[in-house]
Amino acid sequence: MVHDFDPQIAITPLGPVYWYGAVYSLGFVGIFLWFRFRKQARGMTSADVFTLTILFAVGVMLGGRIFDILVYELDYYRDRPLAALNWWEGGMASHGVLLGGLVATALFARMRGDSLVALLDEVVVPGAFLLAVGRLGNFIEGGVVGSATTVPWGFAYPDLEGARHPVALYESAKNFAILPVLVWAIGRWQPGRGVVASLFVFLYAGLRFAVDLFRDYEAAWLGIGTGQVFNLLMAGAGLVMLIWTLRSPQEPAPVPSPRARAASWWQVAALVVLILYPLGIPTSWTRANIAEKRQETMEDARITAPDPPRYFG
């Protein structure tokens, strides 16, 4: 199969709308709807739901962008630092998305006087949904590719040699599979113990390490794909946390008493802007950088390829 998907959904007077950016918008809507549904269980008001979603969206966008620049594409941006502001050229990292979401949730918990652990037990459910649809965006935009393969469901890319594993689809399916497990876990262990959040960290990172064995990383660290280092660290931390929380007799934190407070007009406006903002992000890697790297890969493959046999009559 040939990977020839159009990364654009449509062209608008304000510019192109991309599939990759649209999945972030969809993920933010998922965050909002989950806490809208769970606000009574968490003692949250409508204003609280808007505030958390706004903070989460900002944290995800900043975290994903900063992490990508500092960890994956530092060589590219070191020579052109002002290009870091060009969000429309692409460049987001999933581990940064996780970190940004964590910081945003911690900030909201501090502002509201709520339990951070309880909020994390909740937020990982829509967070897993965001990561699942995010990988669908990765597949369409072609920024995350697998290693060379001969399996019949492999995809051929115009700027790469040979067919490749559709590793972004593997990752998306893995994240969607985690979702019902987390929903079940919330019913089994009340938010506030940390079991659900620990289970997410362990399953997400541990299964991602297995999936990423089929990934062709454009960057490496310590002899393995850069993301694999963080996958191992996260999986180890998640396993330790899961064992500790399951053995801990700690009772769930009390749910704050809600105060009737409707969302303000500026919260509604801010959330709408943040949902629309990602639509202009085209790719997970900066387009110019990934094009350069893949061109180098193609050239290296041609250089190292054996000479064709010569026949003499």
From TrEMBL:
GO terms for biological process: lipoprotein biosynthetic process. One of its GO terms (molecular function) is phosphatidylglycerol-prolipoprotein diacylglyceryl transferase activity. Pfam families: LGT. InterPro entries: Lgt. It is found in: Cell membrane. Its EC number is 2.5.1.145. A 1,2-diacyl-sn-glycero-3-phospho-(1'-sn-glycerol) binds at R135. Belongs to the Lgt family. Catalyzes the transfer of the diacylglyceryl group from phosphatidylglycerol to the sulfhydryl group of the N-terminal cysteine of a prolipoprotein, the first step in the formation of mature lipoproteins. This is Phosphatidylglycerol--prolipoprotein diacylglyceryl transferase. It comes from Salipiger mucosus DSM 16094.
